[in-house]
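BUG: 3D viewer hangs when loading the predicted structure for this chain

Environment: internal workstation, default settings.
Expected: structure renders.
Actual: progress bar stalls at 90%.

Input used:
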Amino acid sequence: MQGTKLSEEVTVTGQVTKEQLNQAAQEGFRSVLNLRAPSEEGALPEEKAIAEGAGLTYLNIPLRKEEISDALTTRLLSEIDTLPKPVLIHCAGGMRAGAIGFMHMATRQGLSSEQAMDKAHSHGFDCSSEPELKQFFEHYIGTHGK
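Structure tokens produced before the viewer hung:
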């Protein structure tokens, strides 16, 4: 399964296909967290049924960049804690999934926003093209992290 492995428990990626969901289950993933709204262009129809049919626990919590908030992020991070591991987090292109994955890592490991951003960059994650997301990333970790 292609994606960016952040830890033994969390991998992030862009939109998945039916084949990739089946492959993820075969590779030992136990859960999928989909951050896309079902109405988003390119979303996989029947993703929940496909994931559950492959034996994966499935959760869909839409995260729109323009609607991101502390409360929604805290909920997402708590859900990651409770999902069976390893969990595959995805969105359209991987940016939202990466941000949530690194916020989870940072807040659980007590990293500063600078340390989290350095770790993100070392994994090839760069949210410079999404200034609002980058600003929220730094704000959330600064407020809820170290």
